[in-house]
Automatic annotation (TrEMBL):
Entry's family note: Belongs to the cytochrome P450 family.
Domain of life where this protein originates: Bacteria
An MF annotation (GO) of this entry: steroid hydroxylase activity
Gene3D superfamilies according to UniProt: Cytochrome P450
UniProt keywords, alphabetically: Heme, Iron, Metal-binding, Monooxygenase, Oxidoreductase
Pfam families xrefs: p450
Protein name according to UniProt: Cytochrome P450
InterPro entries (UniProt xref): Cyt_P450, Cyt_P450_B, Cyt_P450_CS, Cyt_P450_sf
Length: 404
């Protein structure tokens, strides 16, 4: 991708909503060169694509924006993974990969981890509550989700920071333009994470435990010997699960707190009426969706929104655009925690809907309960303007400086 086109992509990613609005008003679908894809922006069209996985394959769901340089790819060759994961699989293969994750993130499993999540949330706030100032993304939002999903998977808390860091570096490597030496350093961090995950795969195969890592290993290996190919598949699976489990929730915490504090009367309402917190979570997820969308590729000739597409056409299915569609949401560009919630697409829909959506919602609920109770005077720091990260998959503030 040339520098001019990447500059336009950067601009689109920091604020995609004007592009979405134009696409919703246009006849048919709009081709967006920056995304190299047809933009699916209306609620009804997004839902139709998600209802038809046989016509719109997920094989390219995680297509990189940037292809790493050969030296970085050589470093990645020394790691594990690189196999299809639940987000990029279709049909029976997708069902096989998804089943243990759905079991591992069941309502009972989520309920069981909530006391730990509440304890960690309180401890993180304890770390800055007396300071009068915090950068929330690094001190809280970037820590809690990794600790919680790490607990469910079965990671030792000592390994969580390296795994979280490796997830961030994987996203940077594939979705941000980096100089070659920085690409190599990022690839080394990713490979270090993969070797940690491979160690867990081997340990859980040898000595099973009551955790999601064991469940995944059992689903792939059964009772037989653990092969090198299975280790690659399991590391890819775990890497995808962990990244989805912490980066998305980290982003959602950041955008939720940002929009509440940009609307101080709504923050004050939440502090005085904490029973509104679940509705605030839904409104924040709808209003500025952390996962803006995923790519799909047509499996044959197909017509969507009156636009005829050949086999192999790439679409960007924009959940964030659908969530601002006035045909489903009144005054969709307004952030309003008092609105009657309508069904949104922040966690997708259909066979690929997010199996961790309840876990994310619960962490948002715990976060808002903790912050409204302990820091009702919370406000955005006047001297630190907020810049959104240039990404379509984990949209959030780059940093969030708060005072009280």
């Amino acid at each position: 991708m040339d520098s001019e086109l990447h500059g336009r992509l950067d601009e689109l990613q920091r604020d995609p909503y004007p592009h979405y609005e134009r696409a919703r008003r246009a006849d048919g679908l709009t081709y967006v060169a920056e995304l190299d894809a047809w933009l699916v922006a209306r609620d009804a069209d997004v839902r139709e694509v998600l209802r038809r996985p046989e016509d719109f394959s997920s094989a390219n769901a995680l297509l990189p924006d940037v292809m790493p340089a050969p030296p970085a790819l050589a470093v990645l060759g020394g790691g594990f993974g690189g196999r299809p994961v639940v987000v990029t699989a279709d049909g029976a293969h997708h069902q096989r990969l998804r089943a243990p994750i759905v079991r591992g993130l069941s309502p009972a499993r989520v309920a069981a981890v909530l006391p730990y999540a509440a304890e960690r949330a309180a401890a993180l706030v304890d770390g800055f509550v007396k300071n009068g100032y915090v950068e929330l993304m690094s001190a809280y939002a970037g820590k809690l989700p990794g600790q919680v999903i790490g607990r469910i998977v079965g990671l030792d808390p000592a390994d969580v920071p390296a795994v979280v860091h490796g997830g961030h570096r994987a996203e940077e490597l594939l979705f941000r333009p980096l100089e070659e030496d920085e690409q190599i350093a990022a690839a080394e961090d990713v490979v270090a994470m993969q070797h940690i995950l491979d160690r867990y795969v081997r340990e859980r195969h040898a000595e099973p435990r009551e955790d999601l890592c064991t469940e995944l290993v059992t689903s792939v290996v059964g009772g037989g010997e653990l092969t090198l190919e299975q280790r690659h598949e399991l590391v890819a699976h775990l890497q995808n699960l962990l990244i989805a489990g912490h980066l998305t929730t980290t982003a959602l915490i950041g955008t939720t707190v940002l929009h509440l504090l940009r609307h101080p009367h709504q923050w004050e309402l939440l502090c005085t009426e904490p029973e509104r917190i679940p509705a605030a979570v839904e409104e924040a997820a709808r209003h500025d969706t952390a996962l803006q969308g995923f790519r799909r590729v047509t499996t044959g000739p197909v017509t969507i929104a009156g636009t005829e597409l050949p086999a192999g056409a790439t679409l960007f299915v924009a959940f964030g655009a659908a969530n601002r569609d006035s045909s489903r949401h009144d005054s969709p560009d307004e952030f309003d925690i008092t609105r009657t919630p309508a069904r949104h697409l922040a966690f997708g829909s259909g066979v690929h809907s997010c199996p961790g959506s309840q876990l994310a919602r619960e962490q948002l609920r715990l976060t808002l309960e903790e912050l409204t109770r302990r820091l009702p005077g919370l406000r955005l720091a006047d001297d630190r303007p907020v810049t959104m990260r240039p990404t379509m998959i984990h949209r959030s503030p780059e940093s969030l400086h708060l005072t009280w």
